[in-house]
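ok so I'm stuck.
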Amino acid sequence: MSHAGPASARPTSIDELRAVTQPPEVRGRRNAEHWTASLYLRRFSPYLTWLLLKTPISANGVTGLMILVGWTTAAALLIPGIWGALLAVVLGQLQMLVDCCDGEVARWRRTSSPAGVFLDKVGHYTTEALIPIALGIRAAAYPLEFPADFLWTTVGALLALVIVLNKALNDMVHVARANAGLPKLADTHGETAPRGGLIAKLRKAARFLPFHRLYHSVELTLIAFAAAVVGLFLGQPLVDRIVVSVLLPLAALSLIGHFVAIMASRRVRP
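replied:
not stuck anymore, here's the structure
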């Protein structure tokens, strides 16, 4: 089996790099891998990681790049029309690619640290808060006229709040378990699934209509792009306003369901 060398060592092949930086325990994580990583980004990320390892940039520095790309993704949505939405889609994919690479750099150089995990959380939390705010501004449409347009910017801000709260629930579980002296939660279905009854049935039903998965940065940029395309025919800002008006109550429902599912699972039980 190949092993990473000193921090200054470089891989001799993509296969060696992939073996070290994408072990089964990484590829097999149930919740830590976004579907884009599992489907195609992990196939390409070693090539970018190869280039990054030729530079002095640290794994945390790569995470910093991921954060900047995420913020730029949200900023792109402030460009009116279809081109801003298309740019956001491209940048959203780039963010996820760089997100794959920071961990790969850390695993190759053996520099994984709590600081890296913290910065990764900062990147995803801030990006997934800024994108809904940008969607609210798109729904208000330029030029902004206040106080009339406060409605749509407020909807965007509320959507950002609900999304961040929903993300925070998972971290709250880990904090609660750590404070209670319980072991780290295994990333398996058995640990996260409700223990039975109505909640378990509703969770299974949600797999057929997984609207709770719409609030990642990738999905939000794809929704924004789809709205921009439809808006070419039905008119804007009407379509953008319909989108944020639908996303907000669905996000609130997802938040409530997530909370109930946690309380009905083994995650917060000794």
